[in-house]
Structure to design on (104 residues):
């Protein structure tokens, strides 16, 4: 259960990062509210998962999921560069996250 919560919390990290960007420095109400809600839920999920998963592994997986998710959404929906070196770097992050899970 802790791993499932950790993965969901990582996806919520993506949500709050995108909402923060869309909030224009917390000056737009709806994205700002989405940012705060998803941030709190993401942190709560991370805290729950860390009861069973070591902090080094849990935090690295959480950040990896959030970073890759945010970068992918940036490339697919926000017009950010999707060149081959960038995609290869994201694949390396995913490989690292999978490695941390396997060798946990």
């Amino acid at each position: 259960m802790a791993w499932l919560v950790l993965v969901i919390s990582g996806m919520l990290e993506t949500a709050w990062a995108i909402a923060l960007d869309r909030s224009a420095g917390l000056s737009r109400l709806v994205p700002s509210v989405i940012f705060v809600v998803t941030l709190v839920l993401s942190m709560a999920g991370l805290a729950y998962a860390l009861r069973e998963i070591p902090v080094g592994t849990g935090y690295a997986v959480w950040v990896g999921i959030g970073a890759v998710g945010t970068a992918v959404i940036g490339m697919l929906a926000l017009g950010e560069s999707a060149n081959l070196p960038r995609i290869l770097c994201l694949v390396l992050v995913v490989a690292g996250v999978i490695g941390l899970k396997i060798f946990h």
Q: What stands out?
A: The chain has a mean pLDDT of 96. The radius of gyration is 14 Å.
